[in-house]
Amino acid sequence: MASRQARSSSMTVALLLVAAAAVQMLVVDAATATASTSASAKKKPVVPAVIVFGDSTVDTGNNNAINTVLKSNFPPYGRDLHIPGGGATGRFCNGRLPPDFVSEALGLPPLVPAYLDPAYSIEDFATGVVFASAGTGLDNRTASVLAVIPLLKEVEYFKEYQQRLAKYVGRDRAKHIISNAAYIVSVGTNDFLENYYLMVTGRFLEFSVGEYSDFLVARAEEFLTSIYKLGARRVTFAGLPAIGCVPLERTLNVLRGGGCNEEYNKVAREYNVKVNAMVARLRAKLKGIRLAYINIYDAMVDLIDHPEKLGLENVSEGCCATGKVEMGYLCNDVCPLTCDNADKYFFWDSFHPTEKVNRFFSKRTTEVWLSLLR
What we know:
- The chain is α/β, with parallel strands linked by helices.
- The protein contains 13 helices and seven strands.
């Protein structure tokens, strides 16, 4: 009897040891497979860094650090940004912005940090940095409307960044990073919707809308020339989207049935023609620059007209709150009307696209980038 109990106990112990060994092997195999997958997934960077200028379409959190009401560093913003460094970072989106996707596609980190974010250092900025500020524009008066960072100040930060970079990696390496980085510029919408048509800075008294477009294109040319002189050589410059189709403008267009404001869209198209011509002039004028115009307008209109291409169900309202007017502090966790699945929507709030749409748009920008490198 005692002998059978001893054998039983020995068998139990043996089985436990075998099971433990099997589990250990599974853990080791899983870890090895994960490491192998991570190694294969990590691509060699195509460029040394991604450097970004502009407005809320590309601001990854700089407005958190300044005294403005235009912020998004609170839920439900960032609710679908679950990777390390995610959450409500100050991105005007439920997740990532186009520069984040472009950075990842070029073999760099999946999030491009904001220059004024104290959580990051020059070590992080060496592979990517965002100087953009939500609410800014090509016209310095646009930045004054909501007390955000003017585009000229973004250039000053760029100069400061270069000095910090040289101290960190050395002058020669810093020069290599600056001249070979991917530069993304997205700005202009606020100049019309927040400035000219809102009639708060007096620009509508100084210029006809066509003249104001000319004024903005001249400012864009000055800006691009200034960063060229500071070393930028590979640059994409985004045209205006269909500004009359953002939910806020649809809501304000109530007298015309709440559809897209076609007057605003016409202005955007005419501005884009002028921007495209300016880009062509600079390509001929500035030696060694690789400058490309990004046509956001047509891609946006096509997706609104054919939402099934991306599996969208709502292209006229934002996911957050009622989706008609809310943005910034009005888009908050208190509102019970925010949608459950942002992937069904073109817009996240009344002004900005969802992460799904940002990912879609970024593919075209990445394609342009790869063509600039050939």
